[in-house]
Design a protein that fits this description.
This protein is mainly beta. About 10% of the residues lie in helices and about 30% in strands. The relative contact order is 0.15. It binds ligand MTE and molybdenum atom (MO). The ligand Nc1nc2c(c(=O)[nH]1)N[C@H]1C(S)=C(S)[C@@H](COP(=O)(O)O)O[C@H]1N2 binds next to strand 3.
Length: about 425
């Protein structure tokens, strides 16, 4: 029997400690060096940066040069283009929940347009009593709301479906997700002003990029919590994220959150646009396909340790990761250090954020031997993240989108971490 009062006694195989450790255990971490050994940096010593006045003020701040390696990953564009493709968020280098704007993943179907906000607006027409056009300036005069939300590309984590476990980092595998504090106008306000007709069922959103990317949004979602976003993390949207105005559909697959929004066509039937017929549909093992798979399912991933962040020596480590669900609120994240044989409940940072990334943590004493770390999230909709095998059994080997399978990180005796399949 383990003593439930002692946060240092493992609660699951291979050294996982109770989540209570985050409340009580910090006193025993003992990572500080005794002062004699730390004398070179004692207060009397003046390093170069304290020997002369520092650098100038700056108009727009940038990260420390010592963090210059923290960059978006991939920057892969389709042949013959500069901007049609995706870059990924380096999840393993970030903490907390909010993704800095400069590291928010990008997915563009025809590059980043440079839109003059004075010459841009959003048209609402179709099955409405009063067709309207909203200038960007006019949108700013509506009551704004702010919400912290995740945005995930439905192609995220498809790397887990490769036949062999690829040697990739957390960001390379799972970095098509980010979370931001979005501020904008509830779409319901604008639809109300235009006066939606009784037979209206869908709103077809169209972007102002060269791709004219379009998606059909169920009217119920448009009236529920859809936002016309103007600000991301406190500042105006950046060009790559939809400046000057984008649609944001909380919890839904990323491609429906149309950037550079220019038109909302209210209709009684979906448009059957390219990106809801030939793309973003899920081919089933029997050859039929699921269309309109909107909410992103419950998911989690350990961001640290992860490939590239090796363990330096046996001892105490903080396992840190992200969990989210497009169907509601993450209720529980469990962590295993023995490849899924036993599980310990992780601590979830507060407050619990529905339809957002959430940070979870687990304390782990690595004994220096091989280990396999996994996380498993469940949500208040009753869904539990599946194993990779279970996901493949359900969706088939041709599936590509909407992968929410568990990620396993294998750790060898040198402390190196890599993507493994169980
Ligand atoms: N107009 C337009 N909207 C778009 C896209 C696009 O190429 N054009 N890409 C979509 C896809 S596939 C995703 S995943 C998200 C990405 O948003 P982000 O670049 O802000 O991360 O925007 C969506 N909205
Ligand atoms: Mo996407």
């Amino acid at each position: 029997m383990t003593d439930p009062g002692d946060p240092w006694i493992p609660v699951a195989g291979n050294g996982l400690l109770h989540r209570r450790w985050f409340l009580q255990g910090a006193l025993g971490v003992a990572m500080g060096l005794p002062l004699s050994r730390a004398a070179a940096t004692a207060p009397s010593f003046r390093p170069p940066w304290a020997s002369a006045p520092g650098g100038p003020l700056s108009g727009y701040g940038t990260p420390s040069p010592y963090e210059g390696h923290v960059q978006r990953i991939g920057l892969v564009s389709q042949p013959g283009t500069d901007g049609s493709g995706a870059s990924r968020t380096p999840l393993e280098h970030l903490e907390g929940v909010i993704t800095p704007n400069g590291l928010c993943f990008e997915r563009h179907h025809s590059g980043v347009p440079e839109i003059d906000p004075q010459r841009h607006g959003v048209v609402v027409h179709g099955r409405v009593r009063r067709p309207l056009r909203f200038s960007v300036a006019a949108l700013h005069r509506y009551p704004l709301v702010t919400r912290t939300l995740f945005l995930e590309c439905s192609g995220n984590s498809a790397g887990l479906l490769a036949a062999d476990a690829q040697l990739r980092t957390c960001g390379e595998l799972h970095g098509l997700v980010s979370a931001s504090e979005y501020t904008g106008v509830p779409l319901a306000l604008l639809l109300d002003e235009a006066g939606v007709e009784d037979d209206a069922r869908w709103v077809v959103a169209e972007g102002g990029d060269a791709a004219l990317m379009s998606r059909s949004v169920p009217l119920a979602k448009a009236l529920d919590d859809a936002l016309l976003v103007l600000y991301q993390n406190g500042e105006r949207l950046r060009p790559e994220n939809g400046y000057p105005v984008r649609l944001l559909l909380p919890g839904y697959e990323g491609n429906m959150s149309i950037k550079w929004l220019k038109r909302l066509h209210v209709t009684s039937a979906p448009a059957m646009a390219r990106n809801e017929t030939s793309k973003y549909t899920d081919l089933r093992p029997d050859g039929t396909a699921d269309q309109f798979t909107f909410p992103m399912a419950v998911k989690s991933v350990i961001t640290s340790p992860s490939p590239g962040l090796s363990l330096v020596e046996p001892g105490l480590y903080q396992i840190s990761g992200l969990a989210w669900s497009g169907r509601g609120t993450v209720r529980r994240v469990e962590v295993s250090a023995d490849g899924g044989r036993s599980w310990a409940e992780a601590a979830l940072d507060e407050p619990a954020r529905p339809l957002s990334l959430n940070r979870f943590r687990a304390a782990w004493r690595w004994n220096g031997g091989p280990a396999v770390l996994i996380s498993r999230a469940s949500d208040d909709h009753g869904d539990v993240q599946p194993t990779r095998d279970a996901w493949l059994a359900r969706h088939g080997v041709s599936a590509f989108y909407h992968c929410n399978a568990m990620q396993a990180w294998g750790i060898d005796a040198r402390g190196e971490v890599r993507n493994v399949y169980l």
